[in-house]
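Dear Dr. H.,

I hope your travels went smoothly. While you were away I took the liberty of generating a structure for the chain from your last submission, since the lab meeting agenda had it listed for discussion. I wanted you to have the full record in hand beforehand rather than looking at slides cold. The sequence, exactly as received, is reproduced here:
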Amino acid sequence: MAIIPGKLAWLLWRLRAMEKGEWKSRLVEVYHKRTETRFLGKISKLRPDLKAGIRRYPVLPTKQAAPADLKVAVGTEADRILSGEWDCLHGQILRVPDPPDWVADPLNSVRFPEVTRAHRIDHRNLPDGMDVRLVWEINRWTQIVRLSQAAWLDDDGKMAQKAISWLENWLDVNPLGVGLNWTSPMEPAIRLINFSWIHALLSDAGFSAEADALANRILPSHTAWVWRYRSAGSSANNHLIGELAGLAIAVSRWPDLTDLSATPEKLADLLGREILTQFAGDGGNREQALHYHLFAWEMAYQGIEALKTAGAVFPNAVELRMRKAAAFFAKLAEDGWDFGDSDDAHVTPFYNKEKTSVCEWKAFLGANPTPEELSGFDFWLGARELDSTLAGNADSWTVFPESGIACWEAHDLKLRFDASPLGFLKMAAHGHLDALHLSIWKSGVPVVVDPGTGGYFASAHERSYLTSAAAHNGPRFPDQSLYPSRRGSFLWERHHPIPEILADSHSPHPDSNTVMARWAPCRSSPEATRSISPGNDRVVVSDHCADHEFEVFWQLATGWELESASPCSWNFISGGICLSIEVTGARESEVTPDTGLTDVSLRGLVSSAFGKYHRAPFLCLRSCPGETLSTTFAFTRKS
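The corresponding predicted structure, in token form, is as follows:
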């Protein structure tokens, strides 16, 4: 039997994952690529004058109302940006020269110097361990927005001039349709969103002529490109929301751009339908990736607000879905250790600090806000209508039945239980094999965690592990053929059956506050059940599969150290918290402390931020046939 080469095999699986009717949009895409030279020539001949008719999105707040801590945070970060230290990717620092190297992966210190048409570049397979996602990060102009904010808040002409010179340099290095920064239409869409803020800030700071000159060079090419190559079919995940939002903001601020894309009314209809498609009725995002939930929500929110200024009207169902989605994130998010894929991306820097941006977003979206946490978001975006239906009671589970997620918070404990579908559309691009996974936090400290994402294209081996059932905290069967297989960075061969969350009355602990779910990785496989009973400083997890052996893997977060062990119990410590794990019903166990990144096995590998890898302790348990495997997590304070 002949072996199909890797790229051809991926293509065949990709064709199988196409949605019904997608062939038409793919044929249009092929036509667009074949006629691209003519399109580029047409755009190059445009001589726009976009000064007239500017609408008011974004609406800048009153400068004098800026909170003092926000001004300090913006000024401090802007100074660091000028010094070459860019805060990105959940607290990482990227070293970036002046002017930035727009075709470099700053985390891996490699660059892509080839000058060629974007659609001829295989951005999934770049040389020398380069990950295009890290190139895109510095080309979204987030830091240029920050410089513009500093210029506007502090009347700092130096910051404004630097923002202008970097944009001019970007245009010289990245002509339309050439190079890595045009390979995904979402990237120019995000630049449209951020340039709208840059233009508003610089114009109000006294640099309107320079801002208008940049607008005339940037906007026609970006708008036409995004509309021409917008995502469709099985590729229409959060990318399509971002593309529509970028176009929405551009045509709302510069109405003349409608001729290169679509009317505000049409964009409102498309964006509204996509919001209802990608966000479930209970507020969860169907991609089953928590940070992408926030990413898509942020883009959608800005797009909606912009189109409203252009006179577009959204149905009540769309407005309600956005409030539900905001409340979902506020309920489930913690600082790091998301479920599903996470590239730790943000669009526009409304936060005070990038490192604390998730906590600031969480506060803004409705989770026990404090004035300090709300200052940046309230200032830039203004007040928003919150959804108060998820307040809940202490000692009770909040269940999102359509999204398949349950959450419990009380006694300084937080639990997040996953009984969700694999992901969105046939590709399930950003989903992980995390069915029946449980994450636990104690006093805000991560205890057992989702292993993270790692990287995308340049870390195939690590990505394959981090997305697998073997890396997640759920019961699993030794036969890997039962589970869906990953056929590419964003491509699963099939979906697994959807887990079922059961009512408390089905629980083996009917008198306790227990949630229970059951799931089989495929229709022909045995079924596993998991029940979780939290209490004061204690969580009891019971796993069962009739007449079949299975394993349970518990991945601890970084920072926990093994203090002592016996055959059925283990004690760990992190800071002032002591964790005792006791097990019944296991015939075999394996525990390991941090073994370092040089260990050949990937077990214990975790990723706290995109592109960052660590080793952390784990506990692997093997069941006795036919018995319930019970794990008790108990917490005490170190004296």
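Two observations you may find useful: The chain has two domains: 65-381, 397-637. The longest helix spans residues 208-228.

With kind regards,
E. W.
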